[in-house]
Design a protein that fits this description.
Elements: H1 27-30, E1 46-47, H2 62-72, H3 75-85, H4 98-101, H5 104-113, E2 116-117, H6 125-144, H7 150-168
Parallel strand pairs: 1-2
Length: about 170
């Protein structure tokens, strides 16, 4: 199998740079905690969702693409991505890696995953979700730029609502 280079998503400097980039050194990251959802009237549940990887029939380099997909689904790549992103690996066997099992935040996510459920598939949800993520990202940009006001947020959410309603028509 071909060896793919691992690079942090937010830092083109390469392996080891994740300690210098991302959110690891920010005040919020140093003061972050997570807790499992409490048990509700019908039990304890958490949402399970994510993204998919695919190989299109019209892909020009199918063999290399297959190798990449196989690598991305490997425990090594899953743990590396989890370390860089803060997301739980999709591969359950990767949950036993020291970086996951030894991380108190990740342990809560592993515990919550025992109660994971997915929502029913809805046609068109992907487009709506992309619009929601895009507009919420814009709100976080306003926060980061210290320009978030009630008026700016209302304007942004009105635009998000219009975009989503348009997508649903």
């Amino acid at each position: 199998m071909r060896r793919f280079r691992q690079r942090p998503l937010d830092d083109p400097a390469g392996p080891g740079a994740e300690a210098q980039g991302g959110f690891a050194e920010r005040v919020a990251a140093r003061n972050l905690g997570v807790a499992p959802y409490p048990i509700g009237p019908r039990g304890r549940y958490t949402f399970f969702g994510g993204s998919n990887l695919a190989l299109f029939s019209f892909s020009k380099n199918k063999e290399l693409a297959k190798e990449l997909l196989k690598y991305l689904g490997s425990p090594e790549a899953q743990v590396t991505y989890a370390r860089m992103s803060g997301l739980l690996p999709a591969l359950r066997t990767a949950w036993n890696a020291p970086e996951i099992h030894g991380n108190p935040l990740m342990r809560v996510f592993v515990q919550a995953a025992q109660f994971g459920r997915t929502y029913p598939s809805l046609a068109g949800w992907g487009g709506v979700e992309n619009l929601a993520v895009q507009h919420l990202g814009m709100a976080w940009d306003l926060v980061a730029q210290k320009r978030l006001t009630q008026e700016a947020l209302k304007d942004l959410m009105d635009k998000a609502s219009a975009a989503i309603n348009s997508a649903l028509r």
